[in-house]
Amino acid sequence: MAKTLGKSTLSALLVVGGHELRSRLRDGTAPLIALVAPILLATMFGLALGGDDDPPFKATIGVVDLDGGEFPASVQREALNTDELKGVLTFRQYPDEAAARGAVDGGESGAALVFPAGFSESVGAGRGGQVSVLESPESPLAGVVARSMVDRISALVEARTLAVRASLEAGVPADRVQLFVEENGAAGPALSLVGDPVSGGKVDLAVHYGAGMAVMFAFFVVGTTARSLLVERQNGTLDRMRAAPLPLWTALMGKSAVGFGLALVSMCATWLSSVLIFGASWGDPLGVFLLLLAHVFAATAIVMLVASRAKTDAQADGYTLGVAFVFAFLGGSIVPVYNLPEWLRSVSLITPNGWVSAGLSELAGTGAGPSAVLVPIAVVTGIGVVAGTLALLGFRKGRFA
Amino acid sequence: MTPALVCERLVKRYGDKTVVDRVGFHIDEGEAYGLLGPNGAGKTTTISMLVGLLRPDEGSVRVGGIDVDEDPVAAKRLIGYVPQEIALYPELTARENLRYFGRLHGLPRRELASRIGEVLDLVGLSGRGDDKVGTYSGGMKRRTNIAVALLHRPRLLILDEPTVGVDPQSRVAILDRVEALVGEGMSLLYTSHYMEEVERVCTRVGIIDQGRVVADGSKRELVAELGGTDRVELTLDGDVTAAAEKLRTVEGVSEAVVTGSSSIRLLVAGGRHLLPALLSAVGDTGAVTGVEVVEPDLEAAFLHLTGSTLRD
């Protein structure tokens, strides 16, 4: 009996899914959202942002060294020697802040660091110091690099300040303290950008934005299924399906499966066209596929959660649109996460977009394998499980299942 | 023989509101049962629980001896459900609609093909089966709506207001088909706003009002509850609300309901003898233009039991 029921349920799932797919093909939404739009997106981003053999970006950072001491020179030397910035970063010297500001505004430099007079001495004496950054909205990545360098310098300055104060407290004479600290391991700034939040900058922008758009688009693709579910409920055909001798969730699952499938096709089409047409690399194929699979699962569950709370198809459309755009913004699909304020960067981690973006950056930027994205995959899948459970509860209450 | 349907003490609440309150009735094998009630009486909610679309808060439903809560899939195999809405895909042909729902009922392809032909024939649409449902008239859509429920040869056919919005000709055609099905031994649950449809098709009637079944029996049994009460239909030019107020004060008048802009329905003990008193009571509220005294019928029984007309 159970075997017969299982077979008939599977058969009914295929019938519902086949009907949904035919409807999407008939009204033209399936080819448009699953193939045309993603390929178009990949092409647009490929043409606009990618397609050459240059490193991901090159940045010129201006330096105003009013200090003239060892610290600013050491920072520049160390930065140019880091693996991540070698061949990418160029420093250009300016006599004062006004000149640097003019150069940044004019596009000659992407950003500038200003070391005030007496900076090295102040740090050496344990009084700390302040480095300012000049940025331009035209060169966000250069700004990110400059800020991350300042973050690093701040850490070193704090460490040096603490060391000096501790030495003074311990009775080291003031005229000997700088030498004492340097002799004991706090000698110049050992600048390293490993682990700093510039990973987005290491990824081909065409990949970053193409993937971001695909991630956002997955919500819209599943949204068409959510809409269809609401329309069927309004027309009474959903109840007619539920009155058939099948488990109540059959109609819901059959339709959701089509939304899931189309969204997966859509994302893979963006990925493949980006790779095949423009030769972009999204990283390890298995890792990318698993990440996309997890995202489509989460997007399907989230959109179904939205649909379970909607009363009309128009309301479902509105909710889906809102969720897709808010998640896209917070999760770095529209604006790179590293360009967001600090508190918003944390918020991005509640969205599947944020985790997928981080995962793809890892895969594309470092050439890592699937094991490097196990955490993002697990988190995104977890988001899907939670949203899916809430959706099922909502669907039961709303007479969908 | 196992009854086609038994429902006992069904209760459905939404928040504080009880929309179905301890509803119970049964339908014997081959019997046609009518469920009569005004809008919002709880008919559709009751039907939703009978067909397994809605879970009752209390009570039980057995279809052909199978508990709907315990084995909904087996119970639903025995039911042919015709919803109140036209639950069809307008962009598909009638044949495609039938094929889709037939496959959901698990009918094998070969059997399905022949059944589609049979049910289209049964509802008089065999010549239009390949036309899109969106191009059909209201009556044709209603007939297709019924055809879908007949595909799997159900033991119990549940029709929820199957003639709403159709022209008189299509209504007659639908009622003819339904009568024929009952004649062939199919059990039937029929809800309608149209008293004459229930009187024609059903052998037993349940009257549901404000979520409760207030009476259940054959037409003869329900009418007998009226005793010697007649139904009087009064038409007048004037203030019908004021006239109804005055008529309620006449001794022997148990109900006086405004049924239109110029009509009042009365339940009157010994209606013929009280006519002069009724006309006098109308007085200066309006000029009586017509009086009809009707022998006790289901309409009068409904008014007597619920205090309202069916279309209220």
From TrEMBL, chain A:
Q: What is this protein called?
A: ABC-2 type transport system permease protein
> What organism is listed for this UniProt entry?
Lentzea fradiae
Please give the chief subcellular localization of this protein. membrane
What keywords does the record list, in alphabetical order?
Cell membrane, Membrane, Transmembrane, Transmembrane helix
UniProt GO molecular function: ABC-type transporter activity
Q: Which InterPro entries match?
A: ABC-2_transporter_component (IPR051449), ABC2_TM (IPR013525)
Q: Name one GO cellular component term.
A: plasma membrane
Q: Where in the cell is it found?
A: Cell membrane
Database matches in PANTHER family: MEMBRANE COMPONENT OF ABC TRANSPORTER YHHJ-RELATED, TRANSPORT PERMEASE PROTEIN
**Mind telling me which Pfam families this protein's record contains?**
ABC2_membrane_3 (PF12698)
Would you say which domain of life the source belongs to? Bacteria
* Gene3D superfamilies reported for this sequence: abc type-2 transporter like domain
Membrane topology of the entry: Multi-pass membrane protein
List all membrane-crossing ranges: 32-50, 206-231, 252-280, 286-307, 319-338, 373-395
Q: Where is the ABC-2 type transporter transmembrane domain?
A: 33-393
UniProtKB/TrEMBL annotation, chain B:
**What's the superkingdom here?**
Bacteria
Instruction: Please give the InterPro entries that the UniProt record associates with this protein.
Output: AAA+_ATPase, ABC_transporter-like_ATP-bd, P-loop_NTPase
The cross-references to PANTHER family, in alphabetical order and at most eight, read: LINEARMYCIN RESISTANCE ATP-BINDING PROTEIN LNRL
Keywords (alphabetical) are: ATP-binding, Nucleotide-binding
Gene3D superfamilies the UniProt entry points to = P-loop containing nucleotide triphosphate hydrolases (3.40.50.300)
For the ABC transporter domain, which residue ranges apply?
5-235
Tell me the lineage of the source organism: Bacteria, Bacillati, Actinomycetota, Actinomycetes, Pseudonocardiales
Annotated GO MF terms: ATP binding; ATP hydrolysis activity
Would you tell me the protein name for this molecule? ABC-2 type transport system ATP-binding protein
